[in-house]
Design a protein that fits this description.
Elements lengths: L3 H13 L10 E11 L7 H5 L4 E2 L14 E10 L18 E2 L6 E2 L3 H14 L5 H14 L1 H10 L3 H7 L2
Antiparallel strand pairs: 1-2, 1-3, 4-5
Helix pairs in contact: 3-4, 3-6, 4-5, 4-6
């Protein structure tokens, strides 16, 4: 004859076998601010250099550049609790992985397009004749297939716009 405890032990083993405990929610907290530059050829090189800069604090820091060139946005971090096969601790950000730019969505860190823009702004802001700077920008656009694709998306007059805004 089975006792009530044997019956309960068998029921509990069958009821919970193979089941996973539900995942606990993530806690999101603000982790300062991050500077996001507008990724376009008219934005000055000093502003592009600040893209991705993190600042601690709970108050939006003052920015020396105009708002249409870039601004600070709130940055977040996730505190994972419970685990259950997931990473625990701080680190993963629940922020978008892409941002908008003059050529469409690009990686949040700017990727190759930010490298192209920084190089283009360095050439446009250099000393020299206007025609020589435009020629240097067109050579830059032909230097790699990826840069050529960016230049096509920016339009045929990207070199002139870049030099004129310097």
């Amino acid at each position: 004859m089975t006792s009530i405890w044997d019956w309960f032990r068998r029921w509990a083993t069958r009821a919970w076998s193979g089941r996973r405990l539900p995942a606990l929610p993530d806690l999101v907290e603000q982790d300062g601010f991050e500077f996001i530059a507008r990724l376009d050829v008219e934005v000055p090189g000093v502003v592009l250099a600040r893209h991705g800069q993190r600042v601690a604090g709970s108050v939006v820091p003052a920015s020396e550049c105009a708002d249409h060139h870039g601004r600070f946005v709130a940055a977040f971090r996730v505190l994972r609790i419970g685990g259950y096969g997931r990473d625990e601790g701080y680190g993963r950000e629940p922020m978008p992985t892409t941002i908008d730019s003059a050529v469409g969505p690009v990686a949040r860190d700017g990727g190759a397009f930010l490298v192209f823009l920084k190089a283009a702004r360095a050439l446009a802001e250099a000393d020299g004749a206007r025609a020589a700077r435009i020629d240097a920008l067109r050579r830059l656009a032909r230097s790699t297939p990826e840069f050529a694709a960016f230049a096509r998306r920016l339009g045929a007059d990207f070199a002139e716009r870049c030099v004129d805004s310097a």
